[in-house]
Design goal:
Helices cover 44% and strands 13% of the residues. The chain is an alpha+beta fold. The protein has two domains: 60 residues; 79 residues, Glutaredoxin, CATH 3.40.30.10.
Length: 158
């Protein structure tokens, strides 16, 4: 399955970025961030491209991509929903909120809806404990959440 983001134009953008950062020591992180921004995710095809351009092994690149949660090897939805499961959020009912999102969207955490509209992610502490329980949708933060609010919040993004 060919993803629309895996275009030669996007590979050229990444190549230009890599060439301008090759002289930096340990330039892998900025390159991976740029790849994530350009493609929306970092599949094996992009990892191999980075390896060919930098001389860094695919196994090392893959290890970094899979270690850090901000990188994804699968395409994410148009709207990424993060449900914080840190201690404060968990104690205040985040599990019920996550369950409601799973029911409403018909997906599990780390999955994307078939229409590509939403991805669901169970996150760790996002540092907004005073607002627990907290969810994020893209750059929007919703604090003092309750499972009963899930449906109305989702409608804002449809």
């Amino acid at each position: 399955m060919e993803h629309t983001s895996l275009t030669s134009e996007n590979f050229n953008k990444l190549d230009v970025f890599i060439q301008s950062h090759l002289s930096e020591t340990e330039g892998l992180m900025p390159i991976l961030h740029e790849a994530q921004d350009i493609f929306g995710y970092i599949p094996l095809e992009v990892q191999k491209f980075i390896s060919n351009r930098t001389g860094i092994s695919v196994s090392r690149i893959h290890g970094v991509v899979t270690f850090y949660s901000q990188f994804s090897t699968e395409p994410k939805g148009e709207n990424v929903i993060g449900v914080c499961l840190g201690t404060a959020c968990y104690v205040k009912g985040a599990q019920a909120i996550l369950q409601k999102f799973k029911e409403e969207l018909g997906i599990e955490p780390e999955q994307t809806t078939s229409d590509g509209k939403f991805s669901l992610v169970a996150t760790r502490c996002i540092g907004a404990c005073g607002l627990a329980p907290v969810i994020t949708i893209n750059d929007d933060v919703y604090g003092k959440m309750d499972a009963s609010q899930v449906s109305s919040i989702l409608k804002k993004y449809n």
